[in-house]
Specification:
- The complex is a heterodimer.
- Chain A is built from twelve helices and eight strands.
- Chain A is an alpha/beta fold.
- Chain A has a single domain (about 10-95, about 155-300), classed as Alpha-Beta Barrel (TIM Barrel).
- Chain A is globular, with a radius of gyration of 19 Å.
- Chain A starts with 7 loop residues before the first strand and ends with a helix.
- Chain B is of the alpha/beta class.
- Chain B has two domains: about 10-135 and about 295-315, Rossmann fold (3-Layer(aba) Sandwich), CATH 3.40.50; about 140-285, Dihydrodipicolinate Reductase, domain 2 (2-Layer Sandwich).
- Chain B has an eight-stranded mixed beta sheet with strand order 8-9-10-7-11-12-13-14, with helices on one face.
- Classes of the chains: A alpha/beta, B alpha/beta.
- The interface of A and B includes residues 18 and 93 of A.
Chain lengths: ~300, ~325
């Protein structure tokens, strides 16, 4: 792994939402404590004390509570924030219950209640003109304002990343216009546009085809020695990473959801070029200390 | 697999009917497949069509199934609510819209309608498939292989479950349960299909249905089944369970030489001779060309498209899937 710059070592939030990609049974066995904001905030703080320098999170009521608690302890200044939007699980659950149109109505209500004038104006324009780009901007404005009001003025919002379900769907549908509008809008706001994907090699090819400047963006994607969620294959993802012009990729799923040991995971990551950093979830204080100490010692 | 007719290797012209969550998912995956041209989308909501027009350039957008008639389609995906499957598929065949049809599970809202769709599919020919995508999950496939090899001996009994928290704490009289066709069709159908795939024909022995969200809704279901050679099985199905953030399906299978526990994430094998093994998704080559939602969806679409291109049968076909509707009818209305 290149040592050109200090790596970003991010605490991931999957365990705080009760997610385990190894097995759903494992997520349930962890118990309720981890899904309490107070406990989760303590884990983030412990990680920061042991080498982590940022937090990667899906924007939800839970993670916004964590941000508020960290702010109250004065920890916000040290924290680089990498926010993922939307919190897909909640939206997919709502679509399942109330349908696509029901979700749209529900979301419009939330924005109206928030009183965010800019978001309301853009949203109205989006609905009247049936303009998906205007609606996307409305949504982003709303979410960014929620992050900032929770994390406080000292917060260092480095990047807002589109959740994999949106990134990968837009990739599949060749929505180059949407990607470009998103990048331009985020750059105007002074925030680095980001993309979470489970189709890294496919994304790199498409972005090259569309002349998207990789130096302006962040990509978060799985990298682990067993090739878990590295599609179409570990080899193809490694080839795509090697061809990138700079350090803009953050490795996620580095432990393949607990399938491999941290030491093995780090050995593999050290062999990769062009990684900007890693994000990893922790579920116990001891995990937080051991994992980030090792990452700091061996990756930086 | 029998091959009936091989289409030329030009792009397949495919339409998707119903632009809810599953329709958009399939449309997206289909658009990444090299042999597919996403030709048309159909949804009755004018608002959804208006937005889709801005997103899906060059794709026909229509509000009625019959409007697909003149588009020279090779295949159609039906992803509308279950209650409309019968009418939509009947229209596709009777108006000559396409010969190859994929439909999300369940095939129909009753066994009688499912039988009629099987008859139509047979008389019109073409490939037909139902979206029981758990069959394409790597751990369920591994379990099927182990059963076929007789690893746990003769199967004596099984316990199957399908749980989610989807309607836990749902408002009383929210109508969601009824709209989604009840927990058996919406959630339980997957595990019923897996059991039929694993063990062959089953008949319902006794049942218990519970309503939680509204009067007469079907929210929790327990039933027992019998199979060949004295096989006994039990199903527990509910969408009001705590701590099931995502739907979860699994089976505990007891055989004459040991037992096997399988869910979407792993297969655990314990034999009476002391041997045991565990396989996670990681061990079973779970990668796909393009991942959206879950790897199973990509495999499913690739399988259907390949079957159409090569003129081979796809599984589960309408006929295979209609057996799930048969079991559900037995549970809901009583055996016989």
């Amino acid at each position: 792994m290149s040592n050109e710059r200090k790596k970003v070592l991010l605490v991931g939030d999957n365990p705080f939402h009760g997610i385990s990609h190894l097995s759903q049974e494992r997520a349930r066995v962890r118990g309720d404590a981890i899904t309490h904001a107070e406990y989760a905030a303590k884990l983030v703080m412990t990680s920061l004390e042991n080498g982590a320098n940022g937090f990667m999170f899906s924007v939800s009521d839970m993670t916004l509570s964590i941000l508020r608690m960290i702010r109250e302890t004065g920890g916000s200044e040290r924290l680089r924030l990498y926010a993922i939007v939307p919190y897909a699980y909640e939206y997919v659950r709502l679509v399942t219950q109330i349908g696509v149109l029901g979700l749209a109505k529900n979301f419009a209500k939330q924005i109206a209640v928030s009183g965010n004038v800019r978001a309301i104006a853009m949203g109205l324009k989006g609905v009247i003109r049936t303009d998906p780009v205007a609606l996307m901007k409305t949504y982003l404005t709303y979410e960014i304002s929620r992050i900032k009001s929770s994390a406080g003025k000292q917060a260092n919002l480095r990047s807002v990343l589109l959740h994999e379900i949106i990134t990968d769907m837009a990739l599949a549908l060749n929505l180059d216009g949407l990607f470009m509008a998103y990048i331009d809008f985020m750059l105007e706001l002074g925030i680095r546009p980001g993309f979470e994907t489970r189709n890294f090699a496919y994304l790199v090819n498409k972005f090259r085809e569309w002349d998207i400047d990789f130096r302006e963006i962040i990509i978060a994607t799985p990298f682990n020695k067993v090739g878990f969620q590295m599609n179409p294959s570990r080899t193809e993802c490694e080839k795509a990473l090697a061809k990138l012009p700079g350090l803009n990729t953050i490795a996620i799923s580095i432990l393949a959801a607990g399938y491999i040991k941290p030491s093995e995971a780090i050995n593999y990551l050290r062999s990769l070029p062009n990684l900007k950093g890693v994000a990893v979830g922790v579920s116990k204080e001891s995990h937080a200390r051991e994992t980030f100490k090792s990452l700091k010692e061996r990756l930086e | 697999m029998s091959c009936v007719k091989i289409l030329s290797r030009e792009s397949l012209r495919v339409a998707v009917i119903g632009l809810g969550k599953m329709g958009i998912l399939h449309a997206s995956i289909l658009n990444t497949l090299p042999d597919v041209q996403l030709t048309a989308l159909c949804d009755k909501s004018a608002m959804i069509r208006k937005f889709c027009k801005r997103v899906f350039e060059g794709v026909h957008l229509v509000g009625d199934v019959e409007e697909l008639s003149d588009l020279r389609l090779n295949a159609v995906y039906v992803t509308t609510p279950i209650s409309s499957h019968f009418f939509v598929i009947k229209t596709i065949y009777s108006k000559g819209i396409a010969r190859n049809v994929f439909v999300e599970k369940t095939l129909a809202s009753s066994y009688d309608k499912a039988k009629e769709l099987c008859r139509l599919a047979q008389s019109f020919g073409g490939v037909n498939m139902v979206g029981y995508q758990r069959r394409l999950n790597v751990s369920f496939r591994k379990a099927k292989d182990l059963l076929t090899q007789g690893t746990i001996g003769e199967v004596v009994s099984f316990n199957a479950y399908a749980y989610s928290s989807d309607l836990l704490g749902s408002r009383k009289n929210s109508k969601t349960s009824v709209f989604r066709g009840g927990v058996l069709r919406d959630l339980g159908a997957h595990v019923v299909d897996l059991a039929l795939w694993f063990f062959g024909g089953l008949t319902v022995d006794s049942t218990r249905l519970e309503s939680v969200t509204e009067r007469d809704s079907e929210d929790s279901v327990y039933f027992k089944v019998k199979g060949s050679n004295g096989l006994r099985g039990e199903f527990n199905i509910s969408w009001c369970m705590e701590n099931y953030r995502l739907p979860e399906f699994g089976l505990l299978i007891k055989g004459s030489k040991g037992f096997m526990r399988v869910d979407e994430d792993k297969v655990e094998l314990k034999l009476d001779n002391g041997k045991s093994s565990m396989w996670y998704r990681h061990d079973l080559n779970d990668n796909v060309d393009f991942l959206l939602g879950a790897p199973e969806f990509s495999r499913e679409d690739k399988c259907f498209v390949k079957s159409v291109l090569e003129g081979c049968n796809a599984e589960p076909s309408f006929c295979t899937a209609s057996k799930v509707d048969y079991i559900i009818d037995q549970v809901e209305h009583g055996p016989g």
